[in-house]
Amino acid sequence: MEYRFENIWALWGLFFILLYLLSCFRRKKYLKDSFLWRKTLLNSLALLCCVLGLARPQGGEALTTQVSEQANLFIAVDISQSMLAKDTLPSRIKFAIDFAQRLIDQLSQIKIALYPFTLNGYMLMPLSSDLQAAKDLLTSLTPSIATGQGTDLGATLENLLAQIKKSELVAKSRGAEWVTPQVLLLSDGETHVPISDNIAMAFRAASVPIFTVGIGNVTAVPIPIDSRLGNETLLKDSSGKTVFTAAQPQTLSRIAELSGGSAYRDNFQEIPKLTQKLKQSLSIGKLSTSFKLTREFYPLCFFLAFLFLFWDFCFSRWEFAIRALWIPFLICSNGLYGLELSDNESQAVEFYNQGVNAYKREDYKESAVQLEKSVLQSLNPSTRKKALFNLGNTFLKMGEIEQALQAYQQSHDTQTSDPEFDKETNQKISDNLVLLQRIKEIQQKKKSEEKKEGQGEGDGAKEGSNNDPKGPKQFEDESLSEQMKRKVLDHISEEEREILKRLAEDKAKKFNSFNTKPW
Q1: What is the CA radius of gyration of the chain?
Q2: pTM metric for this prediction
Q3: Which of 3, 63, 315, 478 has the smallest CB count inside 10 Å?
Q4: Where does 82-184 have alpha helices with state H?
Q5: pLDDT tens per residue, range 402-434
Q6: Among candidates 190, 195, 167, which has minimal Cα distance to 179?
Q7: CA dist., res. 407 & res. 422, Å (int)
Q8: pLDDT tens string 463-517
């Protein structure tokens, strides 16, 4: 478990406790009679607990997750005429385009911006997650789309940094998440204006490293161009001399070093290395740390502060001090009582669930035992009402009419805090009570009829005995034939079937209007 303070600024209150202690020591020096170590200690402890309570000490776990984000990569491509040289096949500019396209295929969850340049460059495509569009636009890069020639790397990088800061402002004004971008510079390094180190250092200050790819050889080569007739000729200057170009990898290495990036050569085998480096630097995703709160300690701090102040108040009044000793015992006793109630209630719910499961298994005897335990254990009106209702259903299944009536009546009399629940349950109980009352009347009527029949036979026997003073006659046994026995048995069976059919129909009429399934 880790601990922290939610309001750490509240710890400045410790400074005031220090001032209080200094004033107490000063009083001890000059006013010895009015100084009390006990009062100073208790007040200091009370103040300390109050300060800690305001700081809200918490206990929990620190959870670290990685939130995916789209990184930003600015690809700056040199489209000056010197990139038409063929010392790197098929040409410098075509190699740069192919190199950038292959690199994009290796990256994911990234936004690409294209920045072709000659004099100072311009934003051809702003940041976009459409990687296919970026690859298509790379194919269209040629020196002919530039408005002028003569590479100026210094002005190009200054303008690029301004464009990056502008994109950051636009993103933040829209409320979007901004990730510090990286720059990929594809060039032969040739510049007609010397570049200052301060420009690359400005990229480092903005945490924007530049990764350079030097294209071309250091040996000077001519620049082939297409003539108006479609033939390939060599580029010449205004005096008619052939223009030669040579790559300057040391310039690109210097830019990468000062900006915090890395320099690479014109080789496709450099792509995996550059991809790995970009994935590390582009921060494709960031770590987000959250705190899972499990415990709060500020109530304890304020409670201790109250005890210290109350104890200081009662210290010179012994009767109050003795009474104050009962406070912790009362709190503990209430806590234990609440814990006991909670345990009893959980046991009552467990008994209730066992009773319902036994009811579903048609083990009605076990269901009645468990539901009775739940009723006796629970103090929750809702649990008692449901347990009594299901206990009535169980007794009904067992044929215990009187006990079922008693359980239903107790459930009906139990009131909960939910009026809708009481109304619905009481309606079901009323239907069952009417049914049970009807069954009880039928049983009583049947018993009275049987009693009357028994009394009639007794009276007849009595009258017979009165009419015959000599007593009952003795008859000899007369055996019935097999045919007569069969007729008697058939008659008894027919009467029994009629009675059972009548009882079943009466019972079905009453039970069809109510379902006795448990909750």
Answers
A1: 49
A2: 0.45
A3: 478
A4: 92-106, 131-139, 153-173
A5: 888 888 888 888 888 888 888 888 888 877 777
A6: 167
A7: 16
A8: 444 444 433 333 333 343 455 445 444 544 555 556 566 666 665 554 444 444 4
